[in-house]
Amino acid sequence: MNKLICAIAAGAVLLGGPAVQAAGYPDKPVTMIVPFVPGGSSDITARSVTPALSKLLGQTFVVENKPGANSAIGAQALARSTPDGYTMMVGSIGTFAINEALYKNLNYNPSKDFTYLTQAVRNPNVLVAATSFPVTTVAELVAYAKKNPGSVSYASSGTGSSDHLSAVLFRQRTDSTGVDVPYKGGGAAIADLIGGQVNVSFQNLGAVQNHIKAGKLKALAITGDTRAADLPNVPTLAEAGIKDMVVYSWQGFAVPKGTPPAVVQQLSKALQTALRDPKTEQTLQGLGFEVVANTPQQFTEFQQGEVKRWKDVIQKANIQLE
C-alpha cells in the first residue's frame, strides 16, 4: 500500500498536479514589481494580496514601484529578470494586452516574455456624461452623435488606456463619431467631466460611482456583462442595445518566461488562495474590484484573447504610439 501511495504522489508531480512543490522555494524575499506609481489599481492589488501571500509561503513579498512609459519600464524589468520565481509583477490590461498593439517600438512582448500566473481582479467601466450634456441614455447619445458628427468629446485618462479604447470601440460599434480628449490620468479627466468641459467618458466604476450617487455625473451604461450591484438601475451596454461590447479593466500576476513550472504552479496556487482570503477579498471588493483568481492556463487564454481584441480595435482606428 505504501508503494502505491508513493507511486500516486510521484505521478501527481509528473503530471503537474497538486503535489507539485518547488524544492526549497521560496527561501528568500520575493520582489513584486508594480509598473505604475503607488495608489493605482495594480499597486492596490499588490499591497492587498501580499500579507496573505507572505503567510502562505513564509517569505516577505516586497512591492517595488517601477513606473514610466505606460508601464513598459517595469514590464521590461520583469522580462529581463532571472526566471527563478523571485521576481514577479502585477500588471494591467494595458501592460499585458493593449501595449502589444499600441506601441510601434515596445521594449517587451506581453505574449512572449511572460508566464501568466492568475488574473487577479477585474472591474467594468461605466459610460458617464456631464450633467450639462443633453443626453440621459445610450440611445440619446448615439442619436446626438450622429446628428452632430464629430462634436461629442470623450475624456480619457490617456491615449491607449482602457477608457480611451472603450470609447473608440463604442464608436465603432455604433457607427458614430467623436473627439478624444486624453488627460494625464483619470482624476483630471473626471474633474473636467464634472465641470462640463467635456461631454462623456468611459471611467472605471470605482472611480466615479460616488460622483454618480452624488448627482455630479449621469451614468448611461455599464460595460460589464451584468449590472453593477452599487448601481442597480444603470443598464449594461447590451441592455442598451450595444452588442459585443463587454469591457473590463483588469489586473494580473506574471513571472518572466522560463520560470520553472513547479514554481509557477506554487505561486499561482498561493495567489489564488491569497486572493480568496476573506480579508483580502473584502478589501478588494470594498474598492470596487471583483476577484477572479483563475488558473495560469485560463489567464493565458484570456490574455491572448484580449491582445487580439484590442489589436483589432487599435488597427481599425489607426492608433499608433512610438
TrEMBL record:
Keywords: Signal. The keyword Magnesium does not apply. Residues 1-22 form the signal peptide. Pfam families: TctC. InterPro entries: BUG (IPR005064), Bug_dom1 (IPR042100). Coiled coil: none annotated. Belongs to the UPF0065 (bug) family. This is Tripartite tricarboxylate transporter substrate binding protein. It comes from Achromobacter pestifer. The lineage of its organism: Bacteria, Pseudomonadati, Pseudomonadota, Betaproteobacteria, Burkholderiales.
